[in-house]
Design a protein that fits this description.
mainly alpha; 2 domains; 0% strand
Length: 132
């Protein structure tokens, strides 16, 4: 296998992996519409039945728990921000008109996905997902 063929193969594998991971988490338009319809039905039935929802107010709680929750929120926000950047570059890559533009977006995706910040955020996010 020639060096250029190997590079092209590796490039395609990276793109396929990124596309697969990013598309797994995005619900389809039909799924969102179905969920919205179900939500509207639920609200209508609740109103017809005269059910009132109580506002959930957190009791004056443990400061340590609140601190831990805010750390988790930061982890999630940071990971989501980086994922959105990757998705943006992937979309730009897919819509690119020439090879130079595609290469630029590919390099940006590699830079983000291989950065210590992204790998750290992903590891922390995956650890949070396992706690559930």
């Amino acid at each position: 296998m020639k060096k250029s063929e190997l590079k092209a193969y590796i490039k395609e594998e990276i793109l396929d992996t990124l596309k697969g991971k990013l598309s797994e988490e995005i619900p389809s338009k039909e799924e969102v519409e179905a969920l919205n319809k179900e939500l509207e039905k639920t609200v209508k039935l609740k109103d017809e039945a005269g059910i009132q929802e109580e506002e959930d107010e957190a009791p004056a709680g443990d400061a340590e728990i609140e601190k831990k929750a805010s750390k988790q929120d930061l982890i999630i926000k940071n990971y989501d921000k980086l994922r959105k950047e990757l998705k943006s570059h992937l979309k730009d890559y897919q819509n690119a008109k020439d090879e130079a533009e595609k290469e630029k977006h590919l390099q940006q995706m590699k830079k983000i996905s291989q950065s210590a910040e992204y790998l750290d955020a992903k590891a922390k996010y995956d650890k949070l997902k396992q706690i559930k």
